[in-house]
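Quick illustration, no need to memorize.
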Amino acid sequence: QVQLVESGGGLVQAGGSLRLSCVASGRTSETYAMGWYRQAPGKQRELVAAITSGGSTNYAGSVKGRFTISRDNAKKSVYLQMNSLNPEDTAVYYCAADPLVLSSTRRVPYWGQGTQVTVSS
């Protein structure tokens, strides 16, 4: 079993920045793919950004150039730096992990509890 705990959400004005953090524990491995999904009210959960154990990254088109995902394998952590936030980024953000890969079509086996990000206009 893998446990994921997020932190760093909050309320920010449009144009501002936030940094989300996620720490993994349990039967996790530095070889796991890790990433961030988000779910806005009334919408489906969507993949925001993912990073492989080797550091390859993948971003949703709506956040490309504004968000940066990174990881620290020694700390079993993944981060999401979010810049130039706008109200459309308002959602619950979930940390996710998979032994192989994270994608928008693949079932995610491990989820964090989620952290709220609210961007005011």
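The mean pLDDT is 95.
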